[in-house]
Amino acid sequence: MRSKFRLIVNNKFYKKEKFFVKKELQTILDLYAKKVSSGDWKDYGLSVNKKEITFDVYQRTSEKPIYRISKNLNPKNKTEKFYVLDKNGKIIKGSENLDSLIKKIEWSNLKLVK
Question: What are phi and psi of 82, to 5 degrees?
Answer without folding.
Answer: -120, 145
